[in-house]
Recover the amino acids of this structure.
């Protein structure tokens, strides 16, 4: 599996600067997918889920299910 890198981190920061919440859902989900451990994965999933809830984004149920699976709802 690839690792999260400075490029993804920079994209997240740029999306925050633009207040591009749809991009933040995608980027935080990608960061979660690339996380090295469960705590980091859940950290990124939480942010992805928050932005998904704010937007009524289609991925909110899937993100919630991932958090629930780790007992992190």
């Amino acid at each position: 599996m690839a690792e999260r890198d400075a490029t993804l981190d920079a994209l997240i920061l740029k999306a925050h600067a633009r207040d591009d919440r749809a991009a933040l859902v995608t980027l935080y989900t990608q960061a979660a997918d690339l996380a090295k451990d469960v705590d980091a994965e859940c950290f990124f999933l939480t942010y992805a889920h928050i932005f998904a809830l704010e937007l009524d984004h289609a991925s909110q149920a899937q993100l919630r299910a991932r958090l629930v699976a780790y007992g992190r709802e």
User: Anything to note?
Assistant: Residues 6-69 form one domain. The chain has one domain: 6-69.
